[in-house]
């Protein structure tokens, strides 16, 4: 039986609006499920940077959108751009994205508190149980924010994202410029792996959750087969770098790396 998130993604269809007229495009409708899957990426800027820092990924650069976050107000994704890889939260507006990030940060704090409480064998266990009951959310209550997600997201084809991850390479990578021309060639469509382990490079380090660790997506059609995006990484002095994506599979796998794993 499909879960409540699957039902939420498929129970409505949203007409794609023309940018010029504002009317629906005949024969096309946007379904949230269309976004899911793995995309091969191409970026002249990151290809040049990867070659310079010897962070070349033989299997190419990629993004995978896995599914809805717990509140159904946004999506979770993982990505690998060679010199930088990690996790991403995606929403249909800047405000919705702030809410999704705050939710993920709160869950991270709750996990830390739960770990501390599990070590306490005192009489506070009863109080902890009460806190768990207070934070339980029923299925109807979970559905309400999902409706807000639909409303905010599908008024516009634009999607906004914030990411956390790791940078691999040398200090030379921080000197990269942003004036590299785009490359229109198609991507490498080989199957990808999950973001690389930090042990894969001697000079890998954590990236802080900088408020400008942002990305922006715009799909070319309701089918979500390709998109144009920008990606910003202040640690690499890369701001709104052009990235293109082509879908290579519409089947999304479960995420194996999560937001909390890149904690500060």
TrEMBL record:
Q: What is this protein called?
A: Uncharacterized protein
Q: Superkingdom of this entry's organism?
A: Eukaryota
- Cite the record's Low complexity compositional bias ranges: 177-192
Q: Where is the composition biased (Polar residues)?
A: 23-32
Which stretches does UniProt call biased (Acidic residues)? 102-129
Question: Where are stretches of biased composition, namely Basic and acidic residues?
Answer: 1-19, 130-151
Q: Where is this region: Disordered?
A: 1-32, 100-151, 170-213
């Amino acid at each position: 039986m499909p879960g409540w998130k699957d039902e939420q993604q498929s129970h409505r269809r949203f007409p794609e609006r023309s940018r010029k007229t504002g009317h629906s495009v005949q024969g096309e409708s946007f379904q949230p499920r269309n976004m899911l899957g793995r995309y091969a990426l191409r970026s002249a800027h990151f290809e040049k940077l990867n070659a310079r820092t010897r962070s070349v990924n033989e299997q190419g650069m990629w993004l995978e959108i896995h599914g809805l976050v717990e509140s159904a107000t946004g999506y979770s994704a993982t990505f690998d751009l060679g010199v930088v890889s990690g996790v991403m939260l995606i929403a249909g507006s800047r405000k919705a994205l702030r809410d999704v990030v705050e939710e993920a940060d709160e869950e991270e704090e709750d996990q830390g508190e739960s770990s501390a409480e599990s070590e306490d064998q005192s009489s506070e266990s009863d109080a902890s149980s009460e806190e768990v009951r207070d934070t339980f959310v029923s299925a109807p209550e979970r559905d309400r924010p999902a409706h807000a997600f639909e409303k905010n997201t599908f008024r516009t084809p634009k999607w906004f994202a914030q990411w956390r991850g790791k940078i691999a390479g040398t200090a030379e990578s921080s000197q990269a410029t942003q004036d590299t021309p785009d490359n229109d060639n198609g991507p490498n469509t080989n199957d990808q792996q999950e973001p690389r382990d930090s042990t894969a490079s001697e000079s890998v380090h954590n990236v802080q959750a900088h408020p400008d660790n942002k990305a922006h997506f715009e799909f070319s059609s309701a089918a979500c087969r390709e998109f144009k995006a920008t990606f910003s990484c202040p640690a690499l002095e890369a701001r709104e770098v052009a990235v293109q994506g082509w879908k290579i599979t519409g089947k999304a796998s479960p995420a194996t790396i999560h937001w909390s794993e890149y904690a500060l």
